[in-house]
Design goal:
The chain is of the alpha/beta class. The chain has a single domain, classed as Nucleotidyltransferase, domain 5, CATH 3.30.420.10. 44% of the residues lie in helices and 17% in strands. It has a 5-stranded mixed sheet, with helices on both faces. Helix 5 links the parallel strand 4 and strand 5. It is globular, with a radius of gyration of 19 Å. The model has no long low-confidence stretch (mean pLDDT 89).
Length: 218
């Protein structure tokens, strides 16, 4: 019996083939493969600031998640050498000084290592949109496109969790839910590591992701 693809699946398959065909570095086509079941990568970046257009990545932390386990033995920690140095204001946040990142990887090499580590796994993170935007700015010159993996925002999962706990009349009032990371971790009764360290932040986002999936019954 022939299976008939829906227009949505047909368009998705066509778009995938188009992106693979135009991939700047064909050796990274594995990112378009079907992801391993029940596996994700939680990641975080430390940067010289919050301007996606002008600031730079200086460290990357990533850890694989398999089912309900954080595979801390399968982690990635990278220092990245910036082109324009590190400001005193950013050092106060992430504690990475000029001399700490001076021997870091060139940006292109860091992106290649990260893409190999991720594979085709969906990405998990807190404030993930910013991290992905910074990564895509670095990856675009290599691939001619950004990261294709599915992205999962932990704060969005937390919002859904808190929303489901509300009574119907409360849900109708467009509730203002505190999505700050410290609030989220405390409410989920999860241990907190030192913040503004890329690997620590990735591990904490992974813990929150697993807990929220369990609360949802996934």
């Amino acid at each position: 019996m022939l299976s008939v693809l829906s227009p949505q699946h047909w368009w998705g398959a066509l778009k995938r083939e188009w992106l693979i065909y135009h991939l700047g570095l064909p050796e990274f086509r594995f990112m378009f493969d079907a992801p391993p079941p029940n596996e994700w990568v939680s990641l975080d970046c430390e940067t010289t600031g919050l301007n996606v257009g002008t600031d730079e990545i200086i460290s990357i932390g990533a850890v694989r998640i398999v089912g309900n386990r954080i595979m801390t033995s399968e982690r990635l920690e990278l220092l990245v050498r910036p082109e324009r140095g590190v400001s005193a204001d950013s050092v106060r946040i992430h504690r990475l000084r000029e001399q700490d990142v001076a021997q870091g990887l060139p940006l292109d090499e860091a992106m290649k290592q990260l893409m190999r580590f991720i594979g085709s796994r969906p990405l998990v993170g807190y404030f993930l949109e910013f991290d992905v935007a910074m990564l895509n700015r670095a990856i675009w010159p290599l691939l001619g496109q950004g990261l294709p993996q599915t992205k999962i925002e932990v704060s969005g999962l937390y919002y859904e969790h808190k929303f489901r706990q509300m009574l119907p009349y409360e849900q109708q009032t467009n509730p203002d839910i505190d999505l700050r990371f410290a609030t989220l971790m405390a409410d989920l009764k999860l241990p907190v590591r030192d913040a503004h360290d890329a690997l620590n932040d990735a591990v904490m986002a992974a813990m929150a992701f697993i807990k929220l999936r369990q609360l949802r019954g996934d």
